[in-house]
Each structure stands twice: as C-alpha cells, then as structure tokens.
Amino acid sequence: xxxxxxxxxxxxxxxxxxxxxxxxxxxxxxxxxxxxxxxxxxxxxxxxxxxxxxxxxxxxxxxxxxxxxxxxxxxxxxxxxxxxxxxxxxxxxxxxxxxxxxxxxxxxxxxxxxxxxxxxxxxxxxxxxxxxxxxxxxxxxxxxxxxxxxxxxxxxxxxxxxxxxxxxxxxxxxxxxxxxxxxxxxxxxxxxxxxxxxxxxxxxxxxx
Length: 208
Prior knowledge:
The strands form two sheets. Strands 2, 3, 5, 7, 9, 11, 13, 15, 16, 18 and 19 form an eleven-stranded parallel sheet that branches. This protein starts with a strand and ends in a 5-residue tail after the last strand. It has one helix spanning about 135, and strands at about 5, 10-15, 15-20, 25-30, 30-45, 50, 55-65, 70-75, 80-90, 95-100, 100-110, 115-120, 140-150, 155-160, 165, 170, 175-180, 185-190, 190-195, 200-205. It is mostly beta strands. Helix content is about 0%, strand content about 55%.
C-alpha cells in the first residue's frame, strides 16, 4: 500500500498522491484515532483508493479517488468522515461502506463500474461486538452528494440491515436510481432521483 498505518493515532497526511500500488493507496488497520487526511489522491491501485478497517477513526477533507478497483471501501466497526471528495472511474464500486459509522458530504461519485455507492452491514464480532449491534449493522449519512450512475448498475444501493440517511443529494442515472434491499432502512430527505435507465426506485418487500 502507499500509506499503511496500524495502531497509530493522531497522524495528519496532506498533499500526497498514492498510485500504482498492488493493494490500496491508503490502508489503515487496528485501533487508530485522530487520523486526518487532507488533499490526497489514491489512483491506479490494485484494490482501493482509500480503505479503513477494524477500529479506525479517520477524516478525509479533500480527496480524489479514481481508477482503482474500489474508490473508497471502509469496513467493520471503523468510523469515517469524508468532505469534499471526488470518486470516479473505478472498476467496481465507487464508495463501499460496510458497517461502522460513516459520513459523506459535499462529494461527487460518478462513472464507476459497479454501483456508485453501496451501504451494507459487516460482521464486527472479532472486536467483541454482539451480532446485530449498531456498529455491525452500520449507520450511514450522505448530504450534498451528486451521484451519476452508468446504465449497467444501480446508482445507489442500501444493503441488508444497514441504516442510511440521504439528504439534499441528487441520484442521477444508473440502471436503477436507488435499490433498497431486505432489512435495510433508508430515509430520503430533499433528494432528487432522475434519469435512471429502467426504474428510479426498487424496494424489496422486507425493506423499511
């Protein structure tokens, strides 16, 4: 990985580009807090442009994640805050949030190969959390985000068991604009859905 941290806290990284690494551009593990990344770029990496795991807390202010496998992929019971990022042209999902607590604001996510954004639960039992706890199910907040999908995948997918709030966003294009899967809870507020190739919203019977 370009930047690899494990069990390190109160680190600030600014004005750095991580490119052409076989794994992630930015890869953070263990128990970390107080991590701040400003004006960073993760591009042309084998897996993720930016990824945090386990029990990490990190903030990204200003970032460009493009031409990776996943643009951003945060997992387990970690906590992440993104402001002012552009995620585009990644081979798979643009922004993939699995479990934990996440916030994405003032962002553009576009032209990625899979769903532009996907939220879902993730097992956190290795950290001692019981099954079904909020950190496992995930709480996800999106505000002032423009999502531009492709005709081959959904623009936004709220996956099983996750709790997601989408406020003042625009979900444009995609095969389906918004998919809400089994046991997912989604709250849409002041958000536009338009220009989907097949349907604007698809909700399974067990969604909320």
